[in-house]
Amino acid sequence: MIKAYGDSVSGNCYKVQMVLNILKIEHQWIEMSIINGDTQAVAYLAKNPTGKIPLIELDDGRVLSESNAIMGYLSSGSALIPNDEFSKAKMYQWLFFEQYSHEPYIAVARYIQLYLGLPEARLTEYYSLHAKGYKALSVMESGLTKQPFLCGEQFSLADIALYAYTHVAHQGGFELVDYPHIRAWLTRITQIPGFVAMRV
């Protein structure tokens, strides 16, 4: 049985939870606390020297880290990855966008507000993240104006990856009132069979 290590409040870990539940993959979820230092324990560092989560461990002892890599592995051959080569490439485009243009701003602002409680020393950084975070949301809004999901008609890993931090963007000070297509998309995702809510 796959062992999945993660913090249920983390968006990156939530992505893996979503895939596991949607695809009904038998697994053991091992809850970790970033704040309590679980990821820096000697036993965990032996599995993942980066000290990051999520991580999955296979029956034969092999481990895989990085949320989008884990999602890709778990979803191989499933409907979460488009068969059409162009649509598949668009999915990867959105996955890279999530890691480089979305998560570094929206997730980090959320971390500063939710986990750290907006300390004075990080307020300048916090507010500076908003411009680029809103730019990422505008790109998503544009992409969703004429289609139900990011890659078109098909719900894919791109939607899971970007749902993770977008649906809790308010916890980083982002307002979605001016993004009606994103809000409708968020609702559609909650209706996907196997959807599981984030523990917040």
TrEMBL record:
Domain GST N-terminal: 1-82
One Pfam family it belongs to: GST_N_2
InterPro entries: Glutathione-S-Trfase_C-like (IPR010987), Glutathione-S-Trfase_C_sf (IPR036282), Glutathione_S-Trfase (IPR040079), Glutathione_S-Trfase_N (IPR004045), GST_C (IPR004046), Thioredoxin-like_sf (IPR036249)
Domain GST C-terminal: 84-200
Coiled-coil segments: none
Gene3D superfamilies: 1.20.1050.10, Glutaredoxin
This protein's name: Glutathione S-transferase
Source species of the chain: Shewanella ulleungensis
Source organism phylogeny: Bacteria, Pseudomonadati, Pseudomonadota, Gammaproteobacteria, Alteromonadales
